[in-house]
């Protein structure tokens, strides 16, 4: 038996057939982690974004999407929808506080810097607000987003990125 007490985290690009699995991570993250900040109706409307798994996968494929794995299994994913804007950022509840979110955020910031972005923006849910705040993102504005029959609040946050590092 080869079980690891602390399975290794790694990152890789999204694979073409992973849409359904990433949709499940998305739904689990929304439904299990956001209850302190959003009503059950808001959570259900938000999670329903992934009900059409083919459309969800197509949207992820149209962005720069990276997947965090733990012991080889996907536990989270994040995307750049533009060089300076985070699209998706979700970690499965079982992997929260294990470093996957930090690894994803570090990678997105490096990708954005490599693509010439001077700052990175994210529309952070109330649940993710503190995570991004601790990483140096500053609130810019509050937003109301309609999902189905529900309105969800989030905050546009921005972080200035370091200049491109010189090769040594």
TrEMBL record:
Top-level taxon of origin: Bacteria
SUPFAM superfamilies in the cross-refs: Acyl-CoA N-acyltransferases (Nat) (SSF55729)
Keywords: Transferase
Species the sequence originates in: Methyloceanibacter marginalis
Short name of any one Pfam family annotated for the protein: Acetyltransf_10
Coiled coil region boundaries: none
PANTHER family: ACETYLTRANSFERASE (PTHR43451:SF1), ACETYLTRANSFERASE (GNAT) FAMILY PROTEIN (PTHR43451)
The protein's name in its UniProt record: GCN5 family acetyltransferase
InterPro entries listed in its UniProt record: Acyl_CoA_acyltransferase, GNAT_dom, N-acetyltrans/Recomb-assoc
GO molecular function: acyltransferase activity, transferring groups other than amino-acyl groups
Residue ranges constituting the N-acetyltransferase domain according to the UniProt record: 9-162
């Amino acid at each position: 038996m080869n079980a690891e007490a602390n399975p290794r985290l790694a990152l890789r690009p999204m694979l073409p057939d992973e849409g359904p699995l990433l949709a499940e991570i998305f739904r689990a993250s929304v439904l299990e982690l956001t209850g302190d900040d959003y009503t059950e109706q808001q959570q259900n409307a938000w999670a329903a974004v992934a009900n059409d798994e083919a459309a969800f996968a197509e949207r992820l494929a149209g962005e720069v999407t990276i997947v965090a794995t733990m012991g080889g299994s996907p536990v989270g994913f994040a995307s750049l929808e533009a060089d300076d804007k985070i699209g998706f950022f979700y970690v499965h509840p079982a992997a929260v506080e294990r470093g996957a979110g930090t690894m994803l955020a570090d990678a997105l910031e490096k990708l954005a810097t490599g693509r010439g972005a001077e700052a990175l923006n994210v529309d952070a849910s109330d649940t993710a607000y503190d995570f991004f705040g601790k990483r140096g993102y500053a609130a810019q504005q509050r937003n109301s987003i309609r999902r189905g029959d529900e309105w969800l609040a989030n905050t546009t946050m921005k972080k200035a990125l370091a200049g491109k590092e010189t090769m040594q």
